[in-house]
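Sat 14:20. Reprocessing the chain from the morning session after the first attempt stalled halfway. Input below, unchanged.
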Amino acid sequence: MVILGGGLAGLCLARQLNIEQPEIRVTVLEKSTFPVPIAAHKVGESSVEIGAHYFAQKLNLKEHIKQVHLPKYGLRFFFGFEDNSDISRRLEVGVRKTFPTPSYQFDRGLLENHLQELIQHDGAKVLSGARVVDVELDVQNGHQVTYVQEGIENKVIARWVVDASGRAGLLKRKLNWAKPNQHEVHAVWFRVPRHVKIDEWSQDTHWAERSGVAGKRWLSTNHLMGEGYWVWLIPLGSGSTSIGIVADSKLHDLRAMNSFDKAMDWLREHEPQCAQSISDDEPQDFLALKNFSYDAKHVFSADRVALTGEAGAFLDPFYSPGSDFIAISNTLVVDLIRRDAQGETIAQRTSVYDQIYLNLVSSTLSVYENQYPLFGHHQLMPIKIAWDYLTYWSLVGYLFFWDRLTDMTFMARHREWLVRAKDLNAEIQAELRGCASQLSVEVGNQYLDQSDLEVLAELNGHLISYRPTEDPSARFRRNIDLMEQAAEEIRQFCRGRRGPSEGLLTRLFDKIALSRPYQSETLT
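Finished this time. Tokens:
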């Protein structure tokens, strides 16, 4: 088989095939040359549970991660207060102790160089400096891929062709599978050559200690939140820090931040402490991307063609889902390739997998689309974040960790539950948007500890507690029940009614009630 593109998605797919289907000959065609640059390379450095588990366990990279990358202290959010000149006065949402299922911060250059070495060692071909110029799809005689390397044109015939070429979308364009969406957002990002430690932005000892991870906030993926935007700070194992601005195009003009100097001016206006903390640093790189979000009509075909990673769909970097979708699509592709190699007819399964993947994309899009105006909202965003965690671990996290994605019997038997979960998510996202104008109190100097919400700890812990002898239906039913209960509590809150005194999210609601200012204690 041939993989078009040797970025993260393509290299991970080759690695997974080497592990699970070592008899299949794999050729990776990558236009860049290895080793790729460290630090100033690509974004997508933050992982969450699915992607982290895929890298560490499915691809056997746990030792590499331990040696050269960084542990992640969860996602951490700081909401604007007055002029944002004092981090200790901002509403903070995070965890005092990390949830049971680990996640990591990656330097993409270090990771991709290591993957390339492993793949070559295991017998796959990685042809760098190979520019694909044509793909002739022929399911009967084998697909023919033409590429140029060192000025010489070469051809390779393959039973399978998987497009991992990223935004270039080589096969996507050829097959007319491109599909736009209505999520109009843009991003700019750069790296600086040191660890920017958000812990050093305040000398307030109470603020330092209340997080429960004094001096280690910087190991989180830190989000600076405002209306229509967020700023990321991600530390890298190579010693650099990745910094990005992501914004709703209707609220923040890309032209105001599409160079490093403009981005710094924008930060001085909206996030002055961030700007001040890097004012003496020279950027290692700078990139800007307009309208980065897009969808796909299809990603898999029974003609032994597939798209993976950003060659298929990309929605938004908020919550770091990029490596999750690589893990999901690669897992489905590898299963199709394995079954095809064993002589199984894969037409029906391919259609089902295509639908599963695109439904997950569609459901995830509702997390982002038209939601950026809420991003600076002190009352609703903590609820939204809790809901988004809850649905992620209940649904797609469950399907991946409990190995249900390729279990068509399970998926068919629980189709109504899956549809209900998707509909619930869309409903609650709309509910939150609908009540935004009614709840608009700005508060500061407070800390909301997500790890004290027992429902989140339970759902996260059950990701890694799966045993093959357990009944997967019972766990999934429990997850959907929790979603139903949390959804009803959110409906009651948004409509100004008092919910249950001992509900799943009661302690969170009590902290963000509008009838009184926040108290200084955490959720405990």
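The CA atoms of residues 199 and 514 lie 29 Å apart.
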